[in-house]
Amino acid sequence: MTAPDRLLREIRTRPRAADRATDLYIVVLSVLVFVLPLARWGTQQVAPATQWSPPWWTAAIAAMLVAIGAAAAGRTRGPVAVSAPYVEWVVAGSAPLARRLRPSWWRSLLVTMAAVLFVTVVAVVSRSTWPDPVGAVTVSAVALGSGVLLSVVWLSGQARRWRNAAVLVLLSAGTGLAWTGAWRSLDGDPAWWSLLVVPVAVGTAVVVPRALSAIRPSRLRTQAIRWSRIEVFATTADLASAAAVLRAPTRLGRHWRPAFAAPPFVRRDLIGLVRAPGRTATGLGAAAAAGSLIPIAQNAVTPLIALISVAAAYVGVCFLSDGLRFHAFDRERPSAFGVGPGAAALQHLVVPTALLTLVMGSAAVLGGSPHVAIALALLVVACRALSVFKGHMPLELLTPVMTPVGEMSSAGRLIWLADAVLVALLVGGTTVSQASGWDAVAILVVAAGLVAVWARSRWRQ
Amino acid sequence: MADTVETRPVLVAEGITASIDDQPLVVPTDITVSAGECVALTGPNGSGKTTLLRLLAGRLVPSGGTVLLDDEPVDERSTHVRSALSVLIGVPALYPDLTLGDHVQLVHATWGSVGETDLERFGVGALRDRFVHELSSGQQQLFSLALVFARPSRVLVLDEPEQRLDADRKDLFAVAVEEALADGRSVVMACHDHDLVARLARRQVSL
């Protein structure tokens, strides 16, 4: 440990006012109340999938997609995650960058390996049969190797060493093959060649020192400040602002002077969508995925598909309704516009409603459920309006609520925060999976109307 | 001050410019900073002073031109560059749970150096046991300057160091710069205070 790190550790061991027992209590309670039930439910849902034996190329493509995602994530938050003051005063010192950043890299590597291993163990124990011991060891080794490879790809993305990242993504396809073999070995069919993943993954670690040296300290500082802001926004339950921090600043279309006939705020929203093509494509893609899943969800034995469909639709409307969010956020400020705030809000609802109903309805045509998809789109848009019109969190929700099982004010805050999403998931998910045809449409449209009335009352408040 | 100035250039920028797409942030500019010399960047708001300092510090890659430190391109990833440049651009990141004294101790631990009067030099010695959030904005600026001057460096890159300081504190800053120049360190600063520029700067670059 270097002198600055030793000094920071000494300073941090001083007595402090915060009660560590309380922190521990909150963590244990969160795990018991949220993580374990969700993990158990998730395990039951994925159990049928673990019996599925996909062709080798499916696993290879999936592994490559995960690796590409890891490399892309490195641009926003990499495995080297140090605090802004640490970058300012410690990383800025005279020691080589690789040496300064190595401890943070090791921490992320271990956490990633542990996370991959945890997910693997959950999947293995959810199988209907007890795994072969040799197969279990093989799968665990492949999981750990995949964790190493994933971490190195992630680091390459953070260091913006794209050539390295491309090679590692191709190698990841090999881990997909290894996963196929290792998974079959759980049934007693040994696949020793799968263990090749381990030396290959360890071998890729040779690029780590160069990658660490290639990271710009100013980018580390920017990432640290960005995530610190997200943490602050998330703590105050302002998730929209937290997500906005991750948005790339608009740069496209600065010289574009569009002239087309439309109400002013509808035109603003269309211009905004064109100037953020990535967000727009993501929103439309999510809407299309949601629509195409609806016919499958209506025939599936598990409600999981319906819930994924509703979640995708909600993600889609979030990406397509920036104008509505900006307007709701600024409604308390004096406005220079000649349109009243209520009329402006209605205009901001036009584009997301039109796009979501059109895309989801079109995507669901093949499965024969466009009417259900359109009705679900209306419900999701209403829920989005309900969410953005809620304003700031009421202070009374911060008041401690003592119960025999502990302090429960956080549950109230969580419900306030996620009420719109919960309504969409519960009503939308249940209806899509349990009702069919025009029955589902009627329920969804009535629900959308009720949520719209609720959203209007929030707006008036 | 003029007696201590050497003619050997330390930091040389030729035709550096920065732009976003077709929007220029800084017009092409030449700057040469010699050892023991103070160069002041002046100009109205938005003229590109801070962007120019970020280019000189290697925190921004120029769209055109070059910045050389000891004949080597400036890159913040280089140990040589980080050892040579001490930079104060904007509000520095500070630990909310460390006192002012802890921060100074940390800076010296990072560099393996020793310093007893870093805070006193800027008049904040009595605040040694305060946390950063217990400072006024002026005190925070003095503390930031104290940290930047505390670490070993050959070139100090400062963005509006005079902001939020009263006349007496500006004098403390000026004395610190004069001592740095006398030690052979160089200073590049963006500054709106004409008196400070006249007192400290050997050369002035107007944007």
Explain how this protein is built:
The complex is a heterodimer of chains A (461) and B (207). With 461 residues, chain A is an all-alpha fold. Chain A has 19 helices and two strands. A two-stranded antiparallel ribbon of chain A has the order 1-2. In chain A, helix 2 packs across helix 5 (97-125), helix 3 (56-76) crosses helix 7 and helix 17 (370-388) runs antiparallel to helix 18. The mean pLDDT of chain A is 86. Chain B is α/β, with parallel strands linked by helices. Chain B has a single domain, classed as 3-Layer(aba) Sandwich (Rossmann fold). Helices cover 32% and strands 27% of the residues of chain B. Chain B has helices at residues 49-56, 79-84, 100-111, 118-121, 137-150, 167-182, 194-200, and strands spanning 9-20, 23-34, 38-42, 64-69, 72-73, 85-88, 155-159, 186-190, 203-206. In chain B, the strands form two sheets. A five-stranded parallel beta sheet of chain B has the order 6-7-8-3-9, with helices on both faces. In chain B, strands 2-1-4-5 form a four-stranded antiparallel beta sheet. In chain B, strand 7 (155-159), helix 6 and strand 8 form a beta-alpha-beta unit. Residues 1-5 of chain B have low confidence and may be disordered. Chains A and B meet through helix 1, helix 4 and helix 10 of A and helix 2 and helix 3 of B.
